[in-house]
Design a protein that fits this description.
alpha/beta
Amino acid sequence: MAFPSHFTWGAATASYQIEGAWDEDGRLPSIWDVFSAEPEKTYQGHTGKVACDHYHRYREDVSLMKEIGLPAYRFSTAWPRIIPGGRGAVNQKGLDFYSRLVDELLAADIEPWVTLYHWDLPHSLQLEGGWCNPAIVGAFESYTEAVVKALGDRVSKWMTFNEPQCFIGLSLSLGVHAPGYKLPQGDVIKAAHHSMVAHGRAVDILRSKGGSSYSIGYVPTTQSMIPPSESAEDIELARHAFFDHTPARPVLWTISLFSDPVFMGSYPDSLLPVIEQDLPRGWQNDMPVIGRELDFVGINLYSSKRLERDEAGVPRVKKDKVGVPQTALKWNVEDETLRWGCRFLWERYKKPVIVTENGLANADWVHVDGKVHDASRIDFTTRYLRGLEKAIDDGADIAGYFHWSLMDNFEWAEGYKERFGLIHVDFETQKRTIKDSGYWYREVIRSNGANIH
Protein backbone atom coordinates (compact mmCIF):
# COMPACT_ATOMS: atom_id res chain seq x y z
CA MET A 1 0.00 0.00 0.00
CA ALA A 2 1.05 3.64 -0.38
CA PHE A 3 1.52 5.96 2.55
CA PRO A 4 -1.54 8.11 3.33
CA SER A 5 -2.06 11.13 1.10
CA HIS A 6 -1.79 13.46 4.11
CA PHE A 7 1.50 11.90 5.26
CA THR A 8 4.25 14.39 6.24
CA TRP A 9 7.82 13.75 5.09
CA GLY A 10 10.67 15.72 6.60
CA ALA A 11 14.07 15.82 8.24
CA ALA A 12 15.16 17.04 11.65
CA THR A 13 17.96 18.82 13.50
CA ALA A 14 18.53 20.41 16.91
CA SER A 15 19.86 23.85 17.82
CA TYR A 16 23.05 23.01 19.72
CA GLN A 17 23.99 20.32 17.25
CA ILE A 18 24.10 22.58 14.19
CA GLU A 19 23.93 26.30 14.99
CA GLY A 20 27.37 27.22 16.35
CA ALA A 21 27.64 30.96 17.12
CA TRP A 22 27.77 29.93 20.74
CA ASP A 23 28.62 33.39 22.10
CA GLU A 24 27.20 35.69 19.41
CA ASP A 25 24.33 38.19 19.48
CA GLY A 26 23.70 37.87 23.20
CA ARG A 27 23.66 34.10 23.54
CA LEU A 28 25.03 32.86 26.89
CA PRO A 29 26.34 29.37 27.73
CA SER A 30 24.11 26.33 27.87
CA ILE A 31 24.84 23.25 29.95
CA TRP A 32 26.29 21.68 26.82
CA ASP A 33 28.77 24.53 26.36
CA VAL A 34 29.97 23.96 29.92
CA PHE A 35 29.91 20.15 29.79
CA SER A 36 31.71 19.81 26.47
CA ALA A 37 34.45 22.16 27.66
CA GLU A 38 35.30 19.77 30.51
CA PRO A 39 38.09 17.25 29.82
CA GLU A 40 37.06 13.82 28.52
CA LYS A 41 33.32 14.53 28.50
CA THR A 42 32.99 14.35 24.72
CA TYR A 43 34.90 12.51 22.02
CA GLN A 44 38.32 14.20 21.65
CA GLY A 45 36.95 17.26 23.42
CA HIS A 46 34.59 18.21 20.59
CA THR A 47 32.13 21.04 21.29
CA GLY A 48 29.23 22.75 19.54
CA LYS A 49 30.92 26.15 19.41
CA VAL A 50 30.94 26.13 15.61
CA ALA A 51 29.15 22.87 14.72
CA CYS A 52 27.64 23.31 11.23
CA ASP A 53 27.68 27.13 11.50
CA HIS A 54 23.98 27.01 10.66
CA TYR A 55 23.45 30.35 12.43
CA HIS A 56 25.31 32.03 9.58
CA ARG A 57 24.58 29.52 6.80
CA TYR A 58 20.87 28.88 7.31
CA ARG A 59 19.97 30.28 3.87
CA GLU A 60 22.32 27.82 2.19
CA ASP A 61 20.91 25.03 4.33
CA VAL A 62 17.33 25.88 3.43
CA SER A 63 18.30 25.86 -0.26
CA LEU A 64 19.69 22.35 0.24
CA MET A 65 16.44 21.30 1.92
CA LYS A 66 14.60 22.59 -1.13
CA GLU A 67 16.92 20.65 -3.44
CA ILE A 68 16.16 17.48 -1.47
CA GLY A 69 12.47 18.34 -1.75
CA LEU A 70 11.64 18.45 1.94
CA PRO A 71 8.02 19.41 2.61
CA ALA A 72 8.74 19.83 6.36
CA TYR A 73 11.71 20.64 8.58
CA ARG A 74 11.85 19.96 12.31
CA PHE A 75 14.24 22.16 14.30
CA SER A 76 14.57 23.36 17.88
CA THR A 77 14.88 26.84 19.31
CA ALA A 78 17.71 27.53 21.75
CA TRP A 79 16.63 28.76 25.17
CA PRO A 80 20.07 30.37 25.90
CA ARG A 81 19.81 32.32 22.65
CA ILE A 82 16.30 33.61 23.36
CA ILE A 83 16.43 34.17 27.14
CA PRO A 84 20.17 33.98 27.76
CA GLY A 85 19.90 34.14 31.53
CA GLY A 86 17.28 31.40 31.62
CA ARG A 87 14.74 33.83 33.03
CA GLY A 88 14.30 37.57 32.71
CA ALA A 89 15.20 39.64 29.68
CA VAL A 90 14.31 38.36 26.21
CA ASN A 91 17.06 38.64 23.60
CA GLN A 92 15.49 40.07 20.47
CA LYS A 93 18.48 39.15 18.30
CA GLY A 94 17.96 35.50 19.22
CA LEU A 95 14.30 35.64 18.28
CA ASP A 96 15.14 37.46 15.07
CA PHE A 97 17.33 34.56 13.93
CA TYR A 98 14.47 32.07 14.21
CA SER A 99 12.07 34.52 12.60
CA ARG A 100 14.42 34.82 9.60
CA LEU A 101 14.76 31.03 9.46
CA VAL A 102 10.99 30.53 9.49
CA ASP A 103 10.53 33.12 6.74
CA GLU A 104 13.24 31.42 4.65
CA LEU A 105 11.55 28.05 5.09
CA LEU A 106 8.12 29.35 4.15
CA ALA A 107 9.54 31.09 1.07
CA ALA A 108 10.93 27.70 0.02
CA ASP A 109 7.52 26.06 0.66
CA ILE A 110 8.90 24.06 3.61
CA GLU A 111 6.71 23.82 6.71
CA PRO A 112 8.50 24.59 10.00
CA TRP A 113 7.97 22.17 12.89
CA VAL A 114 9.36 23.70 16.08
CA THR A 115 10.63 21.85 19.16
CA LEU A 116 10.89 24.11 22.19
CA TYR A 117 13.49 22.13 24.12
CA HIS A 118 16.18 19.86 22.72
CA TRP A 119 18.54 19.73 25.70
CA ASP A 120 20.39 23.07 25.63
CA LEU A 121 19.34 24.37 29.06
CA PRO A 122 20.78 27.77 30.03
CA HIS A 123 23.71 27.15 32.37
CA SER A 124 22.39 29.78 34.78
CA LEU A 125 19.27 27.68 35.36
CA GLN A 126 21.38 24.61 36.04
CA LEU A 127 23.14 26.58 38.76
CA GLU A 128 19.70 26.98 40.36
CA GLY A 129 19.12 23.23 40.26
CA GLY A 130 17.90 22.80 36.71
CA TRP A 131 15.07 20.32 36.31
CA CYS A 132 15.37 19.30 39.96
CA ASN A 133 14.12 22.76 40.96
CA PRO A 134 10.34 23.22 40.54
CA ALA A 135 10.94 26.90 39.78
CA ILE A 136 12.12 25.87 36.33
CA VAL A 137 8.48 25.46 35.34
CA GLY A 138 7.89 29.21 35.48
CA ALA A 139 11.09 29.87 33.57
CA PHE A 140 10.03 27.49 30.80
CA GLU A 141 6.63 29.19 30.63
CA SER A 142 8.30 32.56 30.02
CA TYR A 143 10.58 31.08 27.38
CA THR A 144 7.63 29.42 25.63
CA GLU A 145 5.70 32.69 25.65
CA ALA A 146 8.62 34.49 24.01
CA VAL A 147 8.96 31.89 21.25
CA VAL A 148 5.25 31.67 20.52
CA LYS A 149 4.85 35.44 20.47
CA ALA A 150 7.63 35.72 17.90
CA LEU A 151 6.84 32.73 15.67
CA GLY A 152 3.26 31.74 16.40
CA ASP A 153 1.79 33.72 13.53
CA ARG A 154 3.71 31.55 11.03
CA VAL A 155 4.32 28.26 12.85
CA SER A 156 1.45 25.89 13.59
CA LYS A 157 3.32 22.61 14.33
CA TRP A 158 4.85 22.42 17.81
CA MET A 159 6.61 19.98 20.10
CA THR A 160 7.41 20.78 23.71
CA PHE A 161 10.21 18.39 24.74
CA ASN A 162 12.56 16.07 22.92
CA GLU A 163 13.55 12.79 24.59
CA PRO A 164 13.05 13.41 28.30
CA GLN A 165 14.60 9.98 28.88
CA CYS A 166 17.88 11.54 27.71
CA PHE A 167 17.90 15.01 29.28
CA ILE A 168 16.69 13.43 32.54
CA GLY A 169 18.13 9.90 32.45
CA LEU A 170 21.41 10.23 30.55
CA SER A 171 22.06 13.66 32.04
CA LEU A 172 21.03 13.37 35.68
CA SER A 173 21.22 9.64 36.42
CA LEU A 174 23.93 8.11 34.21
CA GLY A 175 25.96 11.30 33.93
CA VAL A 176 27.02 10.83 30.30
CA HIS A 177 25.19 13.91 28.99
CA ALA A 178 25.22 17.48 30.26
CA PRO A 179 25.28 18.44 33.08
CA GLY A 180 26.85 15.05 33.82
CA TYR A 181 25.27 14.20 37.19
CA LYS A 182 24.69 10.85 38.87
CA LEU A 183 21.86 11.72 41.22
CA PRO A 184 19.79 9.39 43.41
CA GLN A 185 16.46 8.17 42.04
CA GLY A 186 14.51 10.54 44.27
CA ASP A 187 16.04 13.60 42.64
CA VAL A 188 15.76 12.19 39.13
CA ILE A 189 12.07 11.32 39.47
CA LYS A 190 11.30 14.81 40.77
CA ALA A 191 13.14 16.28 37.79
CA ALA A 192 11.10 14.09 35.43
CA HIS A 193 7.88 15.26 37.08
CA HIS A 194 8.89 18.94 36.88
CA SER A 195 9.67 18.56 33.17
CA MET A 196 6.18 17.18 32.55
CA VAL A 197 4.55 20.01 34.50
CA ALA A 198 6.55 22.43 32.33
CA HIS A 199 5.29 20.57 29.27
CA GLY A 200 1.68 21.02 30.36
CA ARG A 201 2.14 24.72 31.05
CA ALA A 202 3.70 25.15 27.63
CA VAL A 203 0.71 23.42 26.02
CA ASP A 204 -1.58 25.90 27.79
CA ILE A 205 0.41 28.80 26.34
CA LEU A 206 0.35 27.31 22.86
CA ARG A 207 -3.39 26.68 23.03
CA SER A 208 -4.04 30.23 24.24
CA LYS A 209 -2.24 31.51 21.16
CA GLY A 210 -3.27 29.09 18.44
CA GLY A 211 -6.19 27.07 19.76
CA SER A 212 -7.18 24.24 17.46
CA SER A 213 -5.18 25.71 14.57
CA TYR A 214 -2.02 24.46 16.27
CA SER A 215 -0.95 20.84 16.17
CA ILE A 216 0.93 20.09 19.39
CA GLY A 217 2.90 17.00 20.37
CA TYR A 218 5.50 15.60 22.73
CA VAL A 219 8.51 13.49 21.78
CA PRO A 220 9.74 10.63 23.99
CA THR A 221 12.15 7.95 22.84
CA THR A 222 12.59 4.25 23.49
CA GLN A 223 13.55 1.00 21.83
CA SER A 224 10.84 -1.10 20.25
CA MET A 225 10.11 -4.55 21.57
CA ILE A 226 9.67 -7.18 18.86
CA PRO A 227 7.42 -10.13 19.74
CA PRO A 228 8.73 -13.71 19.35
CA SER A 229 5.93 -14.38 16.86
CA GLU A 230 2.77 -12.71 15.59
CA SER A 231 0.46 -14.72 17.82
CA ALA A 232 -1.90 -12.64 19.95
CA GLU A 233 -0.14 -13.93 23.06
CA ASP A 234 3.31 -12.93 21.86
CA ILE A 235 2.14 -9.51 20.68
CA GLU A 236 0.68 -8.91 24.14
CA LEU A 237 4.00 -9.99 25.65
CA ALA A 238 5.82 -7.36 23.55
CA ARG A 239 3.26 -4.68 24.38
CA HIS A 240 3.73 -5.43 28.08
CA ALA A 241 7.51 -5.22 27.71
CA PHE A 242 7.24 -1.99 25.71
CA PHE A 243 5.18 -0.06 28.25
CA ASP A 244 5.60 -1.73 31.65
CA HIS A 245 8.41 -1.78 34.16
CA THR A 246 9.96 -5.23 33.73
CA PRO A 247 13.49 -6.66 33.81
CA ALA A 248 13.67 -5.62 30.14
CA ARG A 249 12.90 -1.99 31.07
CA PRO A 250 14.81 0.01 33.73
CA VAL A 251 12.71 2.69 35.43
CA LEU A 252 13.91 5.68 33.40
CA TRP A 253 13.72 3.74 30.13
CA THR A 254 10.16 2.59 30.69
CA ILE A 255 8.53 4.84 28.11
CA SER A 256 5.23 5.02 29.99
CA LEU A 257 6.95 6.91 32.84
CA PHE A 258 7.03 9.92 30.51
CA SER A 259 4.21 9.16 28.07
CA ASP A 260 1.33 7.89 30.26
CA PRO A 261 1.15 11.08 32.37
CA VAL A 262 1.25 13.25 29.24
CA PHE A 263 -1.21 11.27 27.11
CA MET A 264 -3.36 9.64 29.81
CA GLY A 265 -3.00 11.93 32.81
CA SER A 266 -1.67 9.26 35.18
CA TYR A 267 1.48 7.40 36.05
CA PRO A 268 1.50 3.74 34.93
CA ASP A 269 0.41 1.14 37.46
CA SER A 270 3.57 -0.89 36.92
CA LEU A 271 5.78 2.05 37.94
CA LEU A 272 3.85 4.01 40.55
CA PRO A 273 4.79 1.70 43.46
CA VAL A 274 8.45 2.13 42.47
CA ILE A 275 8.46 5.94 42.15
CA GLU A 276 5.61 7.29 44.30
CA GLN A 277 7.84 7.92 47.32
CA ASP A 278 10.10 10.03 45.10
CA LEU A 279 7.45 12.26 43.52
CA PRO A 280 7.07 15.84 44.81
CA ARG A 281 4.55 16.42 47.59
CA GLY A 282 1.14 17.14 46.07
CA TRP A 283 2.09 15.59 42.73
CA GLN A 284 -1.48 14.44 42.20
CA ASN A 285 -2.57 18.06 41.78
CA ASP A 286 -0.25 18.43 38.79
CA MET A 287 -1.71 15.59 36.76
CA PRO A 288 -4.50 17.57 35.03
CA VAL A 289 -1.89 20.06 33.79
CA ILE A 290 0.52 17.34 32.69
CA GLY A 291 -2.27 15.55 30.84
CA ARG A 292 -3.43 18.44 28.66
CA GLU A 293 -4.96 17.37 25.35
CA LEU A 294 -2.42 16.83 22.57
CA ASP A 295 -2.74 16.31 18.83
CA PHE A 296 -0.05 13.72 18.09
CA VAL A 297 2.47 11.36 19.61
CA GLY A 298 6.01 12.07 18.48
CA ILE A 299 8.48 9.21 18.82
CA ASN A 300 12.20 8.90 18.17
CA LEU A 301 12.93 5.29 17.26
CA TYR A 302 16.21 3.83 16.09
CA SER A 303 16.46 0.22 17.21
CA SER A 304 14.74 -2.70 18.95
CA LYS A 305 15.10 -5.60 21.29
CA ARG A 306 13.85 -9.05 20.34
CA LEU A 307 11.99 -10.81 23.11
CA GLU A 308 11.60 -14.29 24.49
CA ARG A 309 10.13 -15.72 27.69
CA ASP A 310 12.10 -16.92 30.67
CA GLU A 311 11.16 -20.04 32.60
CA ALA A 312 8.48 -18.12 34.53
CA GLY A 313 6.98 -16.61 31.39
CA VAL A 314 8.38 -13.13 32.06
CA PRO A 315 9.57 -11.25 28.97
CA ARG A 316 13.29 -10.89 28.61
CA VAL A 317 15.59 -9.63 25.89
CA LYS A 318 16.78 -12.35 23.57
CA LYS A 319 20.52 -12.68 23.09
CA ASP A 320 21.68 -11.23 19.77
CA LYS A 321 22.63 -13.58 17.01
CA VAL A 322 26.31 -13.66 16.15
CA GLY A 323 27.02 -11.01 13.52
CA VAL A 324 23.74 -9.12 13.97
CA PRO A 325 23.67 -6.10 11.60
CA GLN A 326 24.61 -2.92 13.44
CA THR A 327 25.08 0.78 12.73
CA ALA A 328 28.33 2.63 13.42
CA LEU A 329 27.04 3.27 16.96
CA LYS A 330 26.54 -0.50 17.37
CA TRP A 331 22.76 -0.19 17.48
CA ASN A 332 21.06 -3.26 16.02
CA VAL A 333 19.40 -2.88 12.64
CA GLU A 334 15.91 -4.34 13.09
CA ASP A 335 13.56 -3.99 10.15
CA GLU A 336 10.35 -3.93 12.22
CA THR A 337 11.45 -1.30 14.74
CA LEU A 338 8.98 1.29 13.45
CA ARG A 339 6.23 -1.24 12.97
CA TRP A 340 5.90 -2.38 16.56
CA GLY A 341 6.82 0.80 18.41
CA CYS A 342 4.46 2.97 16.39
CA ARG A 343 1.66 0.41 16.44
CA PHE A 344 1.82 0.03 20.22
CA LEU A 345 1.81 3.81 20.74
CA TRP A 346 -1.22 4.23 18.47
CA GLU A 347 -3.13 1.44 20.19
CA ARG A 348 -2.46 2.81 23.66
CA TYR A 349 -2.91 6.55 23.16
CA LYS A 350 -5.19 6.75 20.11
CA LYS A 351 -3.36 9.76 18.74
CA PRO A 352 -1.73 10.00 15.31
CA VAL A 353 1.89 8.88 15.59
CA ILE A 354 4.70 10.81 13.92
CA VAL A 355 8.21 9.38 13.72
CA THR A 356 10.07 12.54 14.69
CA GLU A 357 13.53 10.94 14.41
CA ASN A 358 14.87 7.84 12.69
CA GLY A 359 18.18 7.22 10.98
CA LEU A 360 21.60 5.67 11.48
CA ALA A 361 25.16 6.59 12.27
CA ASN A 362 27.26 5.61 9.28
CA ALA A 363 30.86 5.77 8.09
CA ASP A 364 30.47 8.43 5.38
CA TRP A 365 33.11 10.36 3.46
CA VAL A 366 33.45 12.25 0.20
CA HIS A 367 34.58 9.77 -2.45
CA VAL A 368 37.15 10.44 -5.14
CA ASP A 369 34.35 11.39 -7.53
CA GLY A 370 33.29 14.19 -5.17
CA LYS A 371 30.11 12.43 -4.09
CA VAL A 372 29.06 10.67 -0.88
CA HIS A 373 27.89 7.12 -1.56
CA ASP A 374 26.01 5.90 1.53
CA ALA A 375 24.18 2.81 0.30
CA SER A 376 23.88 1.53 3.86
CA ARG A 377 21.72 4.51 4.83
CA ILE A 378 19.44 3.95 1.85
CA ASP A 379 19.10 0.28 2.72
CA PHE A 380 18.48 1.00 6.42
CA THR A 381 15.82 3.61 5.72
CA THR A 382 14.13 1.40 3.14
CA ARG A 383 13.89 -1.41 5.69
CA TYR A 384 12.55 0.86 8.42
CA LEU A 385 10.01 2.57 6.17
CA ARG A 386 8.73 -0.83 5.08
CA GLY A 387 8.26 -1.62 8.75
CA LEU A 388 6.41 1.65 9.23
CA GLU A 389 4.17 0.75 6.31
CA LYS A 390 3.35 -2.51 8.11
CA ALA A 391 2.18 -0.49 11.13
CA ILE A 392 -0.21 1.34 8.80
CA ASP A 393 -1.34 -2.03 7.41
CA ASP A 394 -1.96 -3.13 11.01
CA GLY A 395 -4.38 -0.23 11.40
CA ALA A 396 -2.20 2.37 13.12
CA ASP A 397 -2.68 6.05 12.28
CA ILE A 398 0.85 7.06 11.23
CA ALA A 399 0.96 10.70 10.16
CA GLY A 400 4.59 11.45 9.34
CA TYR A 401 8.27 10.57 9.22
CA PHE A 402 11.26 12.86 9.88
CA HIS A 403 14.70 11.53 9.00
CA TRP A 404 17.48 12.13 11.49
CA SER A 405 19.20 14.07 10.47
CA LEU A 406 19.22 16.72 7.79
CA MET A 407 23.00 17.08 8.03
CA ASP A 408 25.97 15.63 9.85
CA ASN A 409 26.32 17.45 13.16
CA PHE A 410 27.59 17.49 16.74
CA GLU A 411 26.35 14.17 18.08
CA TRP A 412 26.51 15.07 21.79
CA ALA A 413 29.06 13.02 23.73
CA GLU A 414 30.11 11.32 20.48
CA GLY A 415 31.24 14.68 19.10
CA TYR A 416 31.68 14.71 15.32
CA LYS A 417 32.70 11.06 15.16
CA GLU A 418 29.27 9.81 14.07
CA ARG A 419 27.49 10.96 10.92
CA PHE A 420 23.70 10.77 10.67
CA GLY A 421 23.01 13.28 7.90
CA LEU A 422 21.44 13.22 4.47
CA ILE A 423 23.96 15.99 3.82
CA HIS A 424 27.70 15.55 4.45
CA VAL A 425 29.43 18.40 6.29
CA ASP A 426 33.18 18.99 6.16
CA PHE A 427 33.56 20.50 9.62
CA GLU A 428 36.82 22.27 8.72
CA THR A 429 35.62 23.99 5.56
CA GLN A 430 31.83 23.82 6.21
CA LYS A 431 31.32 22.53 2.69
CA ARG A 432 28.01 20.72 2.29
CA THR A 433 27.54 17.73 -0.03
CA ILE A 434 24.18 16.05 -0.49
CA LYS A 435 24.71 12.31 -0.09
CA ASP A 436 23.23 9.64 -2.32
CA SER A 437 20.68 9.08 0.46
CA GLY A 438 19.54 12.70 0.21
CA TYR A 439 18.74 12.33 -3.48
CA TRP A 440 17.15 8.95 -2.82
CA TYR A 441 15.01 10.47 -0.07
CA ARG A 442 13.87 13.10 -2.56
CA GLU A 443 12.37 10.27 -4.62
CA VAL A 444 10.76 8.77 -1.51
CA ILE A 445 9.03 12.09 -0.94
CA ARG A 446 8.04 12.54 -4.60
CA SER A 447 6.57 9.04 -4.75
CA ASN A 448 5.02 9.21 -1.25
CA GLY A 449 7.05 6.14 -0.34
CA ALA A 450 6.22 4.08 -3.43
CA ASN A 451 9.90 3.69 -4.36
CA ILE A 452 10.76 1.69 -1.22
CA HIS A 453 9.33 -1.45 -2.88
